Amino acid sequence: MTKVATTANATSPAPTATTQTGRSIVIIGALFFIFGFVTWLNSVLIPYLRIACELNNFESYLVAFAFYISYLVMAIPSAWVLKATGFKNGMSLGLLVMAVGALIFIPAALTRTYGLFLLGLFVQGTGLAVLQTAANPYITILGPRESAAKRISVMGICNKVAGALAPIALGAIALKDADALIKRLGTMDAAAKAAELDALASRVVTPYLIMLGVLVLLAVLIYFSSLPEIDTDHEDEAVAAANTGKTSVLQFPHLLLGALAMFFYVGVEVIAGDTIISYGAAQGIALSTAKFFTACTMGAMILGYLIGIVAIPKLISQEKALQVFAVAGVLFALGALFTNGYTSVLFISLLGLANSLIFPAIWPLAIEGLGRFTKIGSSFLIMAIAGGAVLPPMYGWLADQFTPQQAYWLVIPCYLFILYYGMAGHKARS
């Protein structure tokens, strides 16, 4: 298998490698599509399982907890797996683990057991942890550092196109006639209600069987692909000199602050995408309409990625983009808090625009200069994706204690810390 020796400060690949690099970007783009499709199904699963398993707000957002906590648990083991298997075989393994998670959904649906649904989501998140630990540093260092945010933006478009399609596709099946169903459930006796909810739960069997087949097929295709290996343990002279005496990844404060910024970012991204359907319903909008709102959030993110592709680094640096879009997050959140109805929901969708360039900017800033510590540093950033496990249930608890709208105050301090990282945190070196 071809090896590409590079670092986080790599220069552009040689002209003879251009075709191979382009092919690799296409393959990684397909993986990011899968990331997005599986991840943003949660925005439908939350209201769907709330009905099918008779849950409150906090319980329903355990969907996000079970899915994203796997990143915290499995990120370091994922780095060990990748060290043993290499990037390509590790990606194939990650897809197979995701397939097992999809398989668990079948008995979960047939028995309407919420715990099994959560287990399936945890296993799928485990597979994604392996994939993300490989794919994010791979696309970051497959080319010049200063344009890494542009390449990640291209990956983001693949991710969010899938994220827009996924809730529409599953929503058309799982939430079909949901508003009428909710009204009928209130008039039924216990036996009839149980039968109706069993029928609702079984709606996801076919979609997840299809997902199972697709994931297995992709695992086989990746395994036999020509995707080159990247040597992240190699350091050029400048990086090696800067890292003289460094014995631990904990000696890179810009990475640790970047991981905390990533934690807050993923939390607010998941809140913006996964709560908007339920929030729309809380604003009096029918679920038949609200089920499209996550697609609006994904569309706003795609717009932001397109801006990044055009503007970075020609018109704006990664650091400045991080600052501007963090401020936008604060403003859009305030807009949602002080308006109502469709206008408030629109501001939640616009959080997608604010979030779009935060991830592409944090990642290269956080792993800059790590050299031989790149893999373990990437694992720290993957662990930080657990922000998607912690903050949405916090939002759900606040929604139960106050209102779904007032619970959005939670995102304000998150964006303020991201702003700090863009202004000063990424410069910390000691």
From TrEMBL:
Domain Major facilitator superfamily (MFS) profile: 24-430
Protein function: Intake of glucose and galactose.
Bilayer-spanning residue ranges: 25-49, 61-81, 93-110, 116-140, 205-224, 255-280, 292-312, 321-339, 345-366, 378-395, 407-424
Family label: Belongs to the major facilitator superfamily. FHS transporter (TC 2.A.1.7) family.
CDD domains listed in its UniProt record: MFS_FucP_like
Keyword Cell membrane: yes
InterPro entries on file: Glc/Gal_transptr_bac (IPR005964), MFS (IPR011701), MFS_dom (IPR020846), MFS_trans_sf (IPR036259), MFS_TsgA-like (IPR050375)
Gene3D superfamilies: MFS general substrate transporter like domains
GO molecular function term, any single one: galactose transmembrane transporter activity
Lineage: Bacteria, Pseudomonadati, Bacteroidota, Cytophagia, Cytophagales
Protein name (Swiss-Prot/TrEMBL): Glucose/galactose MFS transporter
GO biological process: D-glucose transmembrane transport
Keyword list, A-Z: Cell membrane, Membrane, Transmembrane, Transmembrane helix
Gene Ontology CC entries for this record: plasma membrane
Subcellular location(s) per record: Cell inner membrane
A Pfam family recorded for this sequence: MFS_1
Topology class, membrane: Multi-pass membrane protein
